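[worker-b] picked up task from shared queue
[worker-b] task type: protein-ligand structure
[worker-b] ligand name resolved to flavin-adenine dinucleotide; SMILES cross-checked against name lookup, match
[worker-b] sequence length check passed
[worker-b] input payload:
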Amino acid sequence: MKIRKDYQLQGLNTLRLPSVTSRFATISQPSDILELLNAIDPETLFMLGGGSNVLFAGDYEGTVAHMRIKGIDLIEETDSDVIVQVGAGEDWHTFVTYVVSKNWGGIENMALIPGTVGAAAVQNIAAYGQNIVDVFDSVDAIEVSTGLIKTFTRQECELEYRTSIFKTTLKGKYLITQVRLRLHKNHQLNTDYFMMHVSYDSLQGELKTFAQKPYTIHDVYQAVINIRTRKLPDPDKFPTCGSFFLNPVVSITKLEELQSKMNELQFYPLEQLSYSSPAGLDLKQQEYVKLPAGRLIDELGWRGKTIGNCKVWDKHALIFTHNGKATGKEFLAFTQTINRSVFEEFGVKLESEVVVVG
Ligand SMILES: Cc1cc2nc3c(=O)[nH]c(=O)nc-3n(C[C@H](O)[C@H](O)[C@H](O)COP(=O)(O)OP(=O)(O)OC[C@H]3O[C@@H](n4cnc5c(N)ncnc54)[C@H](O)[C@@H]3O)c2cc1C
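[worker-b] inference finished, payload out:
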């Protein structure tokens, strides 16, 4: 393992923002982490995966470790399930494609999410009605202060909406090296995902265009790829970090106030992690609900708008991009302007899903 000095990270984050880190190392095996921890101040260590959920706001005075631990191993198999162990540095979409080719179900709706398998566990990624928590078994992680390896069960990881214990109580304290997922051989497909107004996406609508019932795991995987390719920027062509803000939690009173201003304002209960058809949702059962942050931004006419080098994506108001010339500072200021306008109009403060570094 080699430690490089003054390393440029522009090619290692999907926002393509320039940022020089004081030290940089590639982690190909767990022992690289131990070697690195002995050579640097562990307090300044930042673990970088695919860089698809980070915003480098400036240079980084510390050490960036780039997770590249690979490997996919079948470690347990029963009549109904398999447990697969995956290196934290494996590319998530490549792994989903492999799993779908084996006809194992549980992550096919999460095709084409950029990034690594390790970060997928940190972020509790989700898409089109599926969440990694639903197939999560456990992770191995190295404690930064001691170098000891610990296994965390699903319960111990405290996976919630776009977060886990590795983003809260244990932020910066553990580096995930292996992730284990339990996938299903007799899988129940989930095609209920339904999103109104911002993009009118529906998995069933897409499936009808090219597949025939009974749908297969591969059909759902392909439907997700079709929708995402149409709707989202390809990070290889447009700098982006995906959805910038989390969906905000508001009280029922606030929801009713906003509904009086907006048609078809979708919402979902806190315990539910994603949208479904609103039919059957009983408002009286809820004290707080989640709203689509993108809808609030869209309502203010931000979609497609540009300020300086930065822009809101034409097809999705929660996704921001730039023309390749923005600095991290400018991009961050752009997101803050949008956040302020949402607060001024609706009284709702948005929180960033993206990790701001530097
Ligand atoms: C176009 C686009 C679409 C997206 N769509 C979705 C979507 O549908 N659903 C969704 O949930 N997300 C989505 N995202 C967000 C992003 O893909 C996920 O959050 C992804 O899991 C980030 O992975 P990464 O490897 O790039 O993480 P990075 O951005 O490199 O890191 C994210 C965080 O995880 C930490 N981290 C990374 N690896 C480790 C490790 N091994 N151990 C400990 N900490 C670690 C980092 O320190 C950082 O805090 C999208 C992003 C883009 C650009």
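[worker-b] attaching auto-annotations
[worker-b] The first strand starts at residue 4 and ends at 8.
[worker-b] releasing lock
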